[in-house]
Amino acid sequence: MAELTLADYARTLTNDIQSQAEAEGGSIPETFTRRVLEQLEEAGVVANTTITYHNEHGVMIYGFGLSDDRDVLDLYTTDFDLNPVADKLTKYEVERAYRRLLAFLRKTGTIRNNFDRTNDVFQLSEGVEKAFAGASKVRLFLFSNRESTARSLPEPTEFQGLPVVHELWDLARLHRHETSGSLGEPIVVDFDPPLPCLSTGSTEPNHSVTLAVLPGERLAELYDEHRTRLLELNVRAFLQTRSKVNRGIRHTLLNEAGRFLAYNNGITATASEAEFVVDGDGNRTAIRRLTGLQIVNGGQTTATLHHVFKRDKNDLAGVGVQMKLTLVRPSDLMEIVPLISEYSNTQNKVTLVDFSSNDKFHVEFERVSRSLWAPAVDGSGQETRWFYERARGQYAEEEAKYPSAAAKRRFKEIHPPRQKFAKADLAKYVNSWHGLPYLVSRGAQKNFTEFRLSLKGALPVVDTAYCQRVIAMGIMFKAIDAIAKQHEAGSHKALITAYTMARLCDATSQRIDLDGIWRKQDVSGALREAVHDLCPLLMNVVIQEGKHVTEWAKSSTCWEEVSRIKWQVPDALIVELLPQPVQFTVDTSEEEADRLARVEGIGPDEWEALAEWARQTRSVELFEQQVATTIATKLATGGKITPAQVKQALEVYDKATQIGFSPAL
C-alpha cells in the first residue's frame, strides 16, 4: 500500500467526515462515530451497536453496543477536532472522557426518567440498563481524530462489581488500522512459562505445524479479552449453548472435567509468527509468543469454555485443550485456512460461508465499477467515478499515489468522497432493495454475511448494467436517508431508511427505474414525494412505544408489520414505473461447468450405448437418439459441447434411465 503519512491521513479523514456529514445532514462527531464503529464491527471488535448522543453536566455518551453472547457492554464517546494536527489529545482529556461515560452508566435511571419513552435518550438509557444487568464486563471506548499523548490507558477498574476496561482509538491507531490492509490488529499472546509443544518440520515452504496442550483457563481468558476477533477466520459463529454439541461440551466441563482432553477434539489454530524455546539439538520444545493467533476450528469449544468459566463460575484448573497450530505466512492465509478448516476433524458440520468462494463477485464489481463514468449532471461537464472499496483503505491508498496537492485535488474531483462506498454499503443497498431491512438493521457485519450467503445461491452477472443499477440503489438509499432526517428519525434514521426503501421497492414490485436514476445521478421528484408520504407511516410502526427500537427492527416480525401498512403508490410515481420488475442476470457458469463435468463423466462409450439402446428399443424420440450419438462423437473426438447440448443431453440421459436404459457394467 502506498505510504500515507499520519498528517495526510488526518486531513483526508477529517475532510471525508465533513463531506459525509454534510451530504447526510448529520452532525460531524456522530458521522465520525458511525464510521469508526462500522470499521470495528467489520473487524469483529464490536457488535450490535446503537448510536445516540447525550450530553449534560459531567456526562457525555455517543452510544453503546453489546457482544453477541450478551456478555460485554460497550459504551462509546467521541472527540472530533476540525484541525486534528494542531493539538494532541491529552491524558487529562482521555481520562475525562472515560469519567463521563461511567457517569452516564451511574445515572441511567435518573436520565431515563427525564425523557419521554419515545425519546432516543430514554431508549439509550433503558438499553444500557438492560445490557448492564446481564453483562459480566464493561468496555469504555473513546474515538478521536487526534493523536493521544497518553503513554498508557487508565488501569482496569470496577463498577458495581463488574470489571471495566478502557479502549482508545485515536488518530494513530485508526491510521494503523485503516492502512494495514488487514481486518484488524494481530492478536499477540505471550506464554509465561513457555507452553510445551511438539513441532514438526514441513516440506511445504509456506507453513509448519506444531502440537500443544493449552490450559483451558488460558483459552477462556483469551476469548474474554479478544472475543470474536479470535475467531475472525472461523467458518461459523458461536451457537451459544443451545446446540447438542455445545451442551455436551458444557456437561463434560461441569461434570467430567478430567476427561475433557480425551473427549474433545480441541482447536485448530493459525498464527503468522511464533517465538519458540529451542533445545541444544535445535528442536522446538515450547512456545514463548504467538503473533496473529486465530482459531479456525474450535470456536464452539472456545466460547463454551469461556461460558463455563465466566457464567457458571466453574474452575477450569486441570482442563487441557489440544491445539494444532499451523504457522502460515499472511500472504497465504486465505488460501490455506479454508482448507485447514475443511479437512479438520470438527465437532459440528462446517459450511464454508465466510471465505473466498464469493470473492469473484467483489473483484469483478471493483473492476467493472472502476471503469464507469457517471454522467455530469451539475453543469460543470465533469464526469466522475464511483469508487468501490473492495478492501478497506483503497481510497486512501489511491489518493496517496498523487504527490502534489493539485494532483490530489484532481483525484477527488474525479472520485468525490461522497461517491466512495464499501462492501458493507453495497450489501446494505442490495438487501434493502430486495426487502430485507431487518437484516440491514442487524449491523454491517451480520448484514454483509447474509449478503454473501445469498450470493452462493444466485451469483449475479457483474457487468456494466449490474454495477450501474447497484450504484443507483445507493443513490436512492442516500436520498431516502436525507428525507428520514427531515422527518426527525433521529438515532433510528439508519433503520427507518432501510425499512422505507424496502417498503417502497415492495410496493412498486421493484419496478423503480434504476437506469434512470443512474443517468440523472439522482431520484425523481415523484419518488421523493412518495418517500415523504411513506416515511412517517413507517416510523409509527418501527418506533413503537414499549419496544426497544434497535432490537425490534432486527426482527422479521417488524418487517411483516411494516409490509401490512396501508399505503398506495402515488399516481405521479406510478407513471414513472417500469412495466416489469428490474431483472438481474444470474451467473450460471459454475452450474454449467458442473453439468458438463457430468456429461464427460458418463463417457463416450456409455453415450454410444444409450444411442444403440434407443435404436433397438425406440423408447425415445429420434432426435433424442441423435443427441446421444452427437455427444458420444464429440467426447471421443474432443469436440466442443455447447451449454444447450449439455442441457439437452442430460435430459435425454435421465429420461432413458427412468424408462429402462442401464449401462453395461
Describe this structure in words.
The structure is a single chain. With 665 residues, the protein is an alpha/beta fold. Helix content is 49%, strand content 15%. The chain has 28 helices and 15 strands. Strands 10-11-7-8-13-9-12 form a 7-stranded mixed beta sheet, with helices on both faces. A 6-stranded mixed beta sheet has the order 1-2-3-4-6-5, sandwiched between helices. It is globular, with a radius of gyration of 29 Å.
Features:
665 residues; 15% strand; globular; single chain
Assign the structural class, choosing from mainly alpha, mainly beta, alpha/beta, alpha+beta, or little secondary structure. Answer: alpha/beta
The outline comes out as: globular
Count of individual beta strands: 15
Our Rg estimate from Cα atoms comes to: 29 Å
- How many helices? The count is 28
- Largest sheet data: 7 strands, mixed
Sequence stretches where pLDDT stays below 50 over 5 or more residues? 235-245, 345-358
Spatial arrangement of strands, main beta sheet: 10-11-7-8-13-9-12
- Mean model confidence by pLDDT: 86
Distance between the termini: 59 Å
Query: Percent of residues in beta strands?
Result: 15-25%
What is the helix content?
Answer: 40-55%
